[in-house]
Automatic annotation (TrEMBL):
PANTHER family (alphabetical): PEPTIDYL-PROLYL CIS-TRANS ISOMERASE CYP38, CHLOROPLASTIC
Gene3D superfamilies assigned to the protein according to its UniProt record, in alphabetical order: Cyclophilin-like
Record's signal peptide: 1-19
Listed SUPFAM superfamilies: Cyclophilin-like
Keywords: Isomerase, Rotamase, Signal
UniProt GO molecular function: peptidyl-prolyl cis-trans isomerase activity
Protein name, per record: peptidylprolyl isomerase
EC number: 5.2.1.8
Length: 213
């Protein structure tokens, strides 16, 4: 029996972390889609501004009823790439901009299953659109002369759902998105935080109003 207890302790130490228990410095969010659920853990310690922005969209319900609309597959390996979702160009849902947290500042690299903010040409243009990587995408990390994208967490459950979305038939689009727009976008039914108390903003929720009469 005296040998069994140390062996049991070793088994416990070697077991993977329970994804149902939040780790210190992280907040988990569940994205419920028409293809299944995805759970992401936001690194609030190393990417506080980006995580706060994402949680504001979650807590306000700004992601509810939007979609995953882009499947960017690697031409060399179509099973890798990234999927993009969020509010697209719906100005009624957008929140104020915030400073870019570079990967060189946060230390959060674009590895497999990383969640990061999509943005336009200016560094502080990230807002209500995000992407999830399938396989490492180091080209999105910051480097001298290139700001990169703000990675702020990773998928802890539901990568099978992400891969389903990546495999969706796509086409159309322009410039960087050419051939990558999902023909039948995957509905992002809702986004709910799993840890802590929601902290909705006081910004107007214009998309909830019908001005058409």
């Amino acid at each position: 029996m005296k040998y069994a207890l140390p062996f049991l302790a070793l088994l416990i130490a070697a077991a993977p972390a329970n994804q149902n228990v939040p780790r210190p410095g992280t907040i988990r969010v569940q994205l419920n889609t028409s293809e299944g659920a995805i759970v992401v853990a936001l690194d609030t310690r190393h990417a506080p501004a980006t995580s706060k922005n994402f949680l504001a969209y979650v807590d306000d319900g700004r992601f509810d009823g939007t979609s995953f609309y882009r499947a960017a597959r690697d031409k060399r390996d179509p099973q890798k790439g990234f999927v993009q979702g969020g509010i697209r160009t719906d100005a009624r849902r957008i929140l104020p901009p915030f400073p870019l947290e570079k990967t060189s500042q946060t230390g959060i690299k674009h590895l497999d299953a990383t969640i990061s903010m999509a943005r336009g040409t200016t560094p502080s243009s990230a807002g209500g659109n995000f992407f999830i990587t399938v396989g490492p995408t180091p080209g999105m990390d910051a480097r001298p002369g290139y700001d990169g994208y703000a990675a702020f967490g990773r998928v802890v459950a539901g990568m099978d759902t992400v891969k389903k979305i990546l495999a969706k038939p796509s086409g159309g689009g322009q410039d960087a998105m050419k051939g990558q727009m999902i023909f039948k976008p995957v509905t992002l039914i809702n986004a709910k935080r799993l840890d802590g108390k929601p902290q909705p903003t006081k910004e107007p929720k214009m998309w909830l109003y019908n001005f058409g009469g």
